[in-house]
Amino acid sequence: MRRLAPTLIKGALIGAGLLLAPIVAQAQEETPLPRTSWSFDGPFGTYDRAGVQRGFQVYQSVCSNCHSLNLVTYDDLGPNGPGGGIGYSEDQVKGIAAEKEVTDGPNDKGEMFQRPARPSDPFHSPFANAQLARNANNGALPPDLSVMAKAREGGPDYIYALLTGFKPAPPDFQVAQGMHYNVAFPGHQIAMPPPLSDGVVSYTDGTKPTLDNYARDVSAYLMWAAEPKLEERHKLGARVMIFLLVFVVIMYLAKRAVWARLHRHDATHAA
To answer: Which of 81, 16, 41, 13 minimizes the C-alpha distance to 225?
Structure first.
């Protein structure tokens, strides 16, 4: 048995190495996400409303053709939304919502009917159900983007890297049929074709209509969609830190006053 022990241990280590080899190889192949600077970074970060509005425009023009945003309502965009929305007025929100038709009902006849969306409605989904979505996308199910910026490691950095990461595959990389090479996507193969390119969306504020700007703006918009109360959280955190700082100063002064009285008391009795 003593002679078999080293052999068994060696065999176990070799087996573990074989099992871990694909995982280690995949980890080595993954491309680190580029670090992007965002206006909402840090404890005092805020959303750039102009950039978020441009990102909403990109989402509406391109992303909403395949991806839903089920946890966001049109009213969230306006002043009644969490954090005050992204800068649209109530009338603008009504106009944005009315551009979409939603299914409602049943009516008095027991029938479902179509009507213009209201501000209180969730964002219009491009597909009625998951099966229709898969059928329209060669079997792939486009994910809902409501919390994508918080669900994925890297958040907006990941989204930006993904949207700008479509490249020609290396000569030694075999891309499966119907898939596309992307340097940021795990495994580097993604069913989604490149959704953005220069000039596909016309900005109205003079910003250059480039792929980089589209990717940056829609990433910021999806970050807002995932955490619309970020600015409120930052403000609350700042107030708490100020309170704690003042509290520490008060406690320090109180400690000094108490110990000063004790020292005087001891000095009096010693005399």
So the answer is: 81
